[in-house]
């Protein structure tokens, strides 16, 4: 941690606010942006549990910001497959090499850019049965790796959700998976008070950014929103491929 606590928390809050705004606009990105800063100022041992608290707060903010637009049926279908799969993935954490997972996910993200457009052009959407299967696959991977990033983006986009409904429903589904993983690891029972406080402070700025993002998304047309999703998937895919081959 830095020598000046004021400067340290100013940095964390500023980056957290930016991360929350980005995540609130496109549905994901808070972990990618904020986690490196948390590692820098608090160290990797504290950064991971702090980020777990931040992720829960970020998803709660997006849910409450768009509460009336949550597709609870899609969320339930996704969680039905995802919650037990996340617990199973957490128990088999060391079975698969993380580089192989990164490589597969990176290629998947890049393939989904034209894939999502192909599905949309033919008015093909992912039904509730498909959401259960998507939740199972994504939930298992969420249990294995630290973060699957925007892996749930193409699933909820393929269900036909956009803007506020997409952001809130994806957040609700992701929240269920992360809670399942946290319970499996008994993370909350082992978190010391200082980590909880740091997580709450960091998460407050992410929540503020998510609420600001609601105002931006309301003024955004659907075409622009979908282009942003493509950009997020492209950047995430390239980042995962880089992590896998470096």
Quick synopsis:
The chain is mainly α. The chain has helices spanning 5-26, 30-42, 44-65, 72-91, 98-121, 128-144, 152-158, 163-185, 187-190, 193-218, 222-245.
User: What string, H for helix and E for strand, traces the elements in order?
Assistant: HHHHHHHHHHH
Helix content: over 70%
Oligomer: single chain
Largest sheet: none
Report, as a whole number of angstroms, the end-to-end distance.
Answer: 28 Å
What number is the mean pLDDT? 78
Overall spatial form: globular
Explain the overall architecture.
Helix 4 packs parallel to helix 8. The mean pLDDT is 78. The radius of gyration is 17 Å and the shape is globular. It is mainly α and 246 residues long. The protein has one domain.
Question: Topology of this structure?
Answer:
Blueprint: H1 5-26, H2 30-42, H3 44-65, H4 72-91, H5 98-121, H6 128-144, H7 152-158, H8 163-185, H9 187-190, H10 193-218, H11 222-245
What are the defining features of this structure?
mainly alpha; 11 helices; 82% helix; 246 residues
